């Protein structure tokens, strides 16, 4: 069996076993965390670090473990969503920015670039049936996972209001619409909406109408979409672009996709004196520990490698390097210059200082700094650690 096939089977098994886990989730499937940016763990815990070092010999990929159903692992995407993302906080800030800098209408059409499992897009669709979302990412496995696990939770019309594209943000029009095998779609609907015959019926008719499922190659350039009110790139995704020319090109594409009636581009960035070093932060959740690891920081290229690990308590298992990114840590003025060069009319910074990491370990522990709000700033004194939203107004 090929490695990919093996992984697929393992992934399917983990989906089946998902219901048996008791994760810290609200009924919509989100972490109940109103503060945006849970992306950087806020706890530095030396005991856990020692525990991690001692247990490093545990291999999460052995055949023996694959054969034992009691050791079934949750999907890495589920763990990521629960520990890294807080879409509700991001959405409320984006709506506030839109009303402040554009105004005159409610934002309805979102594009989430670097969307991964498009959790934010699916959250966006809730509560207003006029809302639509577009997601774009290079990772087909993450997009497929979204189709199977996130969109069915939105409700009957979820699939008709979201379009996911597989491709590169630098060539967005060449990205391809993600299709879903109709049989798999029906299966996921019946699993998530068991007993709701009306909703399942509506979705079945959507599948037949949508030729997307029939056609392998529907490109974004051939897919008519209303101008976007908001385009976002979260969890430091712009750091995946390493060259200035790429950043400007990406911002140009974003500006072109925004509505001619006005729209905003929103991204995030982290920084501070502690961010230009090797870093290891951990945060405990009821059933697992999330570890953020940043390698040495190259001050000439401003590059580093980020790895996300998950330690599952019940299974005594580790998912090391579940996600790994090579990042160039851009500075705020670099981002502003590139946005302006790409044609944005104005650029705004909303910043919050994060609690000093060593201080957190000594005193407050997990959750420290959650209540600190973002403030608009034109000047900001360097801190141990900060997070920022950057808003480009088209
Ligand atoms: C740090 S993750 C962020 C995922 C999600 N936006 C979030 O908020 O958690 C970065 C994502 O960007 C995607 N990515 C990296 N480079 C890309 C590119 N050039 N075009 C499209 N997606 C890209 C990766 O596949 C990954 O899903």
TrEMBL record:
Residues 1-73 are annotated as: Disordered. Residues 1-16 have a biased composition (Basic residues). Residues 42-69 have a biased composition (Acidic residues). PANTHER family: EXPRESSED PROTEIN. This is S-adenosyl-L-methionine-dependent methyltransferase superfamily protein. It comes from Lupinus luteus.
């Amino acid at each position: 069996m090929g490695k990919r096939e093996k992984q697929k089977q393992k992934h399917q098994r983990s989906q089946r076993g998902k219901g048996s886990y008791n994760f810290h989730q609200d009924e919509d499937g989100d972490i109940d965390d109103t503060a945006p940016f849970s992306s950087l763990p806020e706890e530095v815990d030396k005991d856990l670090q020692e525990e991690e070092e001692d247990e490093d010999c545990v291999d999460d990929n052995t055949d023996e473990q694959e054969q034992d159903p009691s050791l079934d692992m949750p999907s890495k995407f589920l763990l990521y969503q629960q520990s890294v993302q807080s879409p509700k906080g991001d959405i409320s800030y984006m709506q506030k920015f839109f009303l402040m800098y554009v105004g005159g209408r409610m934002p309805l059409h979102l594009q989430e670039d670097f969307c991964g499992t498009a959790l934010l897009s699916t959250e966006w669709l809730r509560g207003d049936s006029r809302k639509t979302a577009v997601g774009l990412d290079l990772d087909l496995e993450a997009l497929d996972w979204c189709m199977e696990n996130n969109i069915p939770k939105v409700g009957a019309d979820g699939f008709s209001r979201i379009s996911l594209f597989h491709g590169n943000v630098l060539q967005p029009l060449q990205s391809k619409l993600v299709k879903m095998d109709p049989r798999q779609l029906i299966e996921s609907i019946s699993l998530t909406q068991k007993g709701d015959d009306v909703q399942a019926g509506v979705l079945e008719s959507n599948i037949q109408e949508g030729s997307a499922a029939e056609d392998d190659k529907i490109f974004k350039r051939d897919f008519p979409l209303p101008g976007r009110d908001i385009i976002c790139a979260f969890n430091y995704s712009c750091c995946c672009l390493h060259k200035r020319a790429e950043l400007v090109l990406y911002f140009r594409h974003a500006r072109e996709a925004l509505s001619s009636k006005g729209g905003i581009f929103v991204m995030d960035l982290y920084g501070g004196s502690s961010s230009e070093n090797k870093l290891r932060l951990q945060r405990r959740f009821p059933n697992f520990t999330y570890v953020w690891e940043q390698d040495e920081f190259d001050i000439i290229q401003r590059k580093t490698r980020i790895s996300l690990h998950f330690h599952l308590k019940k299974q005594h298992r580790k998912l090391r390097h579940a996600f790994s990114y090579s990042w160039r840590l851009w500075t705020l003025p670099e981002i502003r210059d590139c946005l302006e060069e790409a044609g944005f009319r104005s650029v705004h910074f909303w910043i919050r200082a994060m609690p000093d990491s060593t201080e957190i370990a000594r005193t407050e522990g997990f959750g420290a700094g959650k209540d600190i709000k973002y403030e608009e700033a034109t000047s900001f004194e360097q801190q141990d650690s900060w997070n920022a939203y950057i808003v480009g107004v088209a």
